[in-house]
Amino acid sequence: MRSCRKPRMCWERSKRSLVTDYTAMVFSSGQLTGIYIGSRKGEGKNFAESAELVADHGVRGDSHAGKNPDRQVSLFAAETLRELQTEGFKVSAEELSANLFTENIQLDSLASGTRLGIGETIIEVVEARKPCRIITRIDNRLPKRLYGRCGLLGKIIIGGIVRAGDSVEILE
Length: 172
Description:
Structural class: mainly beta
Largest sheet: 7 strands, mixed, barrel
CATH topology: M1 Pyruvate Kinase, Domain 3
Distance between the termini: 20 Å
CATH architecture: Beta Barrel
Number of helices: 2
Strand order of the largest sheet: 3-8-7-11-10-9-13
CATH class: Mainly Beta
Strand content: 35-45%
Number of strands: 13
Oligomer: single chain
Radius of gyration: 17 Å
Helix content: under 10%
Order of helices and strands: EEEEEEEHEEEHEEE
CATH superfamily: PK beta-barrel domain-like
């Protein structure tokens, strides 16, 4: 397959199919710092060294998987969690109920439709994540504090295994 200078549709003659080459245009990169999976809705999530992201489904073993085609995975900025802890909020990653925690990616500034490459997977941003009522169990002030900084919801375009430490790249 030939390499594209910009993300665009390339013609792969040998297979006579259209493929997308995302390898040439990376706009920003960071790291996956944590993976969390919860088997019960409304409860916290547990840390995992790795997880399988299933295309058009969600995080294997997570209570939200397969429920909503546009809300298959949730992402949260590790920097925001550290800010909350520095401000005195007694909150952990497990309690925030996000699946993937990232670092050095401005998650809350990404527009719907932006694609992220994490390890071998590709996730498309669908919408901003809004603080849910469950977060008030941690602290009544958290929903207001997290409004506009609560991460993202996405759908899995290309599935695969992700591991803590994988690179996170903004593709488009």
